[in-house]
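Researcher: Next entry: Sedoheptulokinase (Paenibacillus endophyticus).
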Amino acid sequence: MSDSATVKLAAGIDIGTTSISIILSSIETGETVKLVTTMNTTVISSKRNWEKQQNPDQIAAMVVNLIQDCSEVWQQVAAIGISNQMHGVLYIDRSGNAVSPLYTWQDGRGDLPMTASVTYAESLGEFWGQPIATGYGLVTHYFNVLNDGLSADCYKLCTIGDYVAMKLCGLNEPIMDATHAAAIGFFSAETHSFEFDRLESAALDATILPELAGKDGLVGYTPDGKPVICAIGDNQASFLGSVPRLSDSVLLNIGTGAQISAYSDRWLKADGLETRPFPGGGYLLVGASLSGGKSYALLKSFFQETVRAFGTLAEDELYSEMNRLAEAALDSGVPPLRFDTRFYGTRIDPAAAGGINGLLASNFTPGHFAAGILNGVADELMDFIQLAPPQLSSVWTNAVGSGNGIRKNGVMQRLLRERLSLPLRLSGAAEEAAFGAAIYSAARANLFTDLDAAIAVMHRGECQDV
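Model: Predicted structure:
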């Protein structure tokens, strides 16, 4: 084992919607040498409630500040990887400077009516030949083009991860990984190319799209000579940072939303699942819900309002009390409530609504409501599991849980164990996306022979059984 002061480190930067993190991990053991996190406080307020924007230059400055917080060991960093929130885009000029805010994945302009019967997202989907949701970068761009929302000096669009990578290297041209290209729209995951003909049929100039990353994923080098690897999607990065092996695990994640993800080394298509490019090759089949932890937070807000009106329970005690009541309700023998947790619609049908079935006098209690929502979220994940092609699911030997909605909720762990035919383990990494970006950077910077070797060495041992 090398001396701790000389061991090489891989840096993973994760730019999330609500927080930004940097993890420095040993390439010999995967051990976390340094982890720094800060809240993403760059939201730009707007009077239009559908507009969700952040300040890209403030985000870039926050990343630099976090790097400075790692100064005592930064000289040991041998590769830098980036993951970031998917779908959102910003515009840059020919000098590589931002000339717009970052329009995040939560932006709702695509759901605004373009005509009396069609939204902007629906209109663009007709040109693409498949549905595309609001928040996708090219939906945002389509709206901006049609409503004179572009600055005269717009040259390229890119993701916030692409922008930060470019800035770290002192460049003025962004490079985009296929994981992000697929997340903005009009990209074929099967052929790994933009569908320029369809894009141009929508009267959108394809030259605004950035160059796609090469096989090595290299963007460039920092002034002190560290290779910066192209930013990848946070979904793919979280998978890399969570599973001990690519091919035999299914990842269940509950954060703000909820999703299942499984790796395939070849192109597979399954109704109800999205096939996304995987960094370095292969694909990730994903079933994604807009609800998940957001649904439980909605119930918490309801209880919070009730507590303010009638009780004295402290706000930070609500989740633990909700979990206690839910556990008691599950053990009560009373028929459970069945919740449809589509309170925030779906990616395909934003107007979809949630619902409750099975209401009785005996289960009209806070505990049964809490258990019902947790059951609804678990059911939605299992529905996605059932959609996985048999040639994929037949090789799974374990399920890995990640995100606070699983890691910090023993009731959800119980519900998933009861439904899964696989052992459930918890991810060993606290910041899965940042750790996954670090692993990917180490592989692409040739610190390992390939991605599998990087995972085998750097992954944080066996996941914890629950």
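Model: Note for the record: The two ends are 31 Å apart (CA to CA).
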